[in-house]
Amino acid sequence: MASSLLLLSFLFFSLCHALPREAILDAADVLSDSNFVSMALTLEIVAETILEHSPSATVFAPSDAAFKKSGQPSLDILRFHFVPLPLPLSSLRIFPAGARIPTMLPGQSLTVTTSSSDRVTSLNNIKLTESPIYDDGLLLVYGIDRFFDPTFHSNNQRPISDSDSSCSRKNHTSSSNSFDQAVETLKAGGYTAMASFLGMQLFDVAEQSGITVFAPTDETVLNRIGDFSEYPSFFRRHVVPCRLLWNDLVDFGDGSELPTFLDGFAINITRSDGVLILNGVPVFFPDVFFNDKVVVHGVSDILAAQNNAVRVGEEENVFGEF
């Protein structure tokens, strides 16, 4: 057990705390060389203000023609073009049409409008460049030919269901992959902390009944969890004892609750501007990984204890000693 804790300590404290200024300047240089001069200059001026507390980001850069047509945008419009997590093309292509991607403009999100037949990813019906203009793993920049419209509404949104609040186990068909594959996929996608907990804690449980994991990124875990004594409680409140794909989650009505492996702690489902919210935290990356036993969804922050949750140290350890 001590070796596991030491490993987690090394993983957490070796992570980057903030997006470095050098990355922003490098991205601006590449944008300028790629004929996105207006956004290059804008990025140098506003990036640190918009991304003050974000260790990673994806930026959607309008073309020089878009700036010429629309004029210099407001800071709020610029915030609408910043997403506080890195989104490589492989991730963007996984989002289903109609999925919402929260932006740095509070309460506003981008809508995935890519259909299964499209070769190019689109958001709010605006196509992205076929590959990032800049990508260092933490900061990614895509080009777009015009500004996103915050008032955009997609006709592809799913109706909200009147599902009850139970976490019923559902049968799905999928290829049978190993539990280890879920762990490796999480590690490769920037969810090393959750992958480590998953590997140590839940193999037997997942094999028996299936689980759903709501995974914050490594940077979020590092910034929000500093005491080893909190780790078991932190992990268990992010895991639901049944298998729920994205299409299952969106069928739950507002106010539905999902039980977790932390005794007394439930996850409350609501929506804001069409974005699925769990205990106040948006689901950022649906179906990061899934097979016939494990489903993982990325969330933009840790799921904080609310009125229905017990406090750290008062819960029963349902997995035994950590």
Q: What does the model show?
A:
This is FAS1 domain-containing protein. Residues 1-18 form the signal peptide. Residues 157-176 are annotated as: Disordered. The structure is a single chain. Mean pLDDT is 76; it is low at 1-16, 157-165, 168-176 and 308-322. The protein has helices at 2-13, 21-33, 37-50, 64-70, 75-79, 89-92, 179-188, 192-201, 203-209, 218-224, 231-236, 246-249, and strands spanning 57-62, 82-83, 100-102, 109-111, 122-123, 126-127, 134-135, 139-144, 211-215, 239-240, 257-259, 266-272, 275-278, 281-290, 294-299. α1 (2-13) packs antiparallel against α8 (192-201). It has two domains: 21-144, Roll (FAS1 domain), CATH 2.30.180; 160-299, FAS1 domain, CATH 2.30.180.10. It starts with a helix and ends in a 23-residue tail after the last strand. The protein has 322 residues and is of the alpha+beta class.
Low-confidence stretches: 1-16, 157-165, 168-176, 308-322
Distance between the termini: 7 Å
Question: The biggest beta sheet, please?
Answer: 7 strands, mixed
- CATH first level of the largest domain: which class? Mainly Beta
Strand ordering within the main sheet:
10-9-15-14-13-12-11
Individual helix count? 12
Structural class: alpha+beta
CATH topological fold name of the largest domain: FAS1 domain
- Going by CATH, the architecture of the largest domain would be Roll
Pfam families: Fasciclin
Keywords: Signal
Protein name: FAS1 domain-containing protein
Domain FAS1: 21-152, 166-303
Summarize it.
By secondary structure, this protein is of the alpha+beta class.
SSE blueprint and pairings:
Blueprint: H1 2-13, H2 21-33, H3 37-50, E1 57-62, H4 64-70, H5 75-79, E2 82-83, H6 89-92, E3 100-102, E4 109-111, E5 122-123, E6 126-127, E7 134-135, E8 139-144, H7 179-188, H8 192-201, H9 203-209, E9 211-215, H10 218-224, H11 231-236, E10 239-240, H12 246-249, E11 257-259, E12 266-272, E13 275-278, E14 281-290, E15 294-299
Helix pairs in contact: 1-8, 2-3, 7-8
